[in-house]
Amino acid sequence: MKRVLYLLLLFTLLLAGCAPAATPVSAPEARTLSVFAAASLTDAFTEIGKNFEAANPGVAVTFNFAGSQALRTQIEEGAPADVFASANKTEMDTLVTDSFVTQGTPQVFLNNKLVVILPANNTAGLTKLADLANSGIKLVLAAEEVPVGKYARQALDQMKSQFGKDFKDKVLANVVSNEDNVKQVVAKVQLGEADAGIVYTSDAVAAPQLKTIEIPTELNVIAQYPIATLIKSANADLATTFIEYVLSSNGQSVLQKWGFAPPE
Amino acid sequence: MQVAGGFLPRLFESMKRLKPLLIRFLNDGHLNWIFILPSAILLALFALPLFALFVRSINEGFFNFAFSEQAFKALRLSLTTSTITTLVTILFGTPFAYTLARWKFRLKSWIELFIDLPIVLPPSVAGLVLLIAFGRRGMFGSALSALGISLPFTTAAVVLAQTFVAAPLYVRSARVGFAAIDKQLEEAAHVEGANQWQLFYEVMFPLAGRALLSGAILTWTRALGEFGATILFAGNLEGVTQTMPMAIYLGFERNLGIALALSVVLVIVSILLLMFTKRLEKHESD
Question: Percent of chain A beyond pLDDT 70?
């Protein structure tokens, strides 16, 4: 009996040792493209990725969606990525300064705007922008380091011209949590834990059951999203093809479907 | 000894002949390496990252970050909440562990399974289920609202999340401690006329002391380091719900220097507190 067990063990180890050697079978060269994209691009880029794979057999696109500031940190600490799509120019500029992206190569591929989202049943009864300063409401924003968090605070600054000098302070006093990326803000509002959140219009399109309060253009912020290939990419040619696809009418139509605006 | 037959039987035979040689080799004092080598490798796994942390964190910004208001608030919140969590755990967990260890009742094995479950659950799942249960629109949320309690985004939520993930560690340790007490001691106490409370307080509690203390230390450290459940259930607001691990995680995305400085602070505070608890353990065993 013992002998059989030793035999089995030896056999399993040999098998495990042999397995990797068996993989180079004659198959079309499979290439993987690693795209780091802002969290707000989750739905649109997932679809674009599928379309890109269909148009380019043998290519697999993998995504890493997170707050742009988190992605920039990961890239700086050596995470392997081919393409970086940021929700603001700040994070892309940092990578250019630190020599992860070649100067002059980032291209703006879409514009986005902000909107206030409310839970479907809107128990707090908010109807207009000024209601954000009402005492006792629970507001969730993204943290200041996150692009949408920065944009939201910018917009609140601009709203002071219409709602009074202390509007921004009153609104910020209602903030109960600063989330790490925009999709977390959406989640808290969807769960009804928050009475309101400030996110991108594209996020409102992706979650149609949420109610919204429009932010008029003169008070709103235009978010410009740049995209670029990373210098250390091992698939620079494929990365360029992907970026061209995003900028093409195919990519742009998908982006507009998900609520993004074309770049100027 | 000749063995007729194929290759494998002969292989086993030669391995059997090696055994006495191996034993003699080990007995000649080379035995130590079996213990030293794996220990050294594991120790290196723990020590090298800490060493790297201290070396890399030394830069001009260090003292600014380490003594910033955000660092103080986060540290104070972390220490306060983890201490409260440990006290709450001891208060509720001790009787619970006692009943699990010494009483017999139906469904006991199921209850033990449930109490061990949070240990294996990923913290993010823990945060999610707390939200679904006790969130504003959670299953029991309306009941809580009726009592005027709204949990998410409060410091109480931080304590609750920490308790959920850390208390099972105490209950397990305490249960083992209580169960290890000889039944004869319990019987002797009854013969002496002790009632339930006297039995617990003067016999069981002191005898299980070491297990209770090590369980409490486990709970406290687990609560101090808790991150996933708190960020989901309690949210992130400086001074209210932003614990040290959260400040480090978010600081990492802003400026590596902040994360390094805060990490060093947390490590130093943790070392000091572990040294303190070590003295308690020594005192306990005297």
Answer: 91
- Taking the CA of residue B37 and the nearest CA in chain A, the distance in Å comes to 24
Between strands A31-38 and A139-142, the pairing is unpaired
User: Is B253's CB within 8 Å of A192's CB?
Assistant: no
Q: How far apart are the first and last CA of chain A?
A: 76
Residue type, A244: E
Highest averaged pLDDT of the listed ranges A140-154, B11-25, B251-265: A140-154
Give the chain A residue whose CA is nearest to the CA of B234.
Answer: A177
pLDDT value at position B284? 63
Whether ipTM exceeds 0.85: no
Residue B250: closest C-alpha in chain A: A180
Token readout for A143 is 């943290």
Instruction: Kindly list the residues of chain A whose beta carbon comes within 8 Å of any beta carbon in chain B.
Output: 3, 6-7, 67, 69-70, 72-73, 76-77, 138, 140, 143, 145, 175-180, 188, 191-193
User: Which chain B residue has the Cα nearest residue A190?
Assistant: B137
B130: alpha, beta or left? (left if phi > 0; alpha if psi -120 to 50): alpha
pTM for this prediction: 0.78
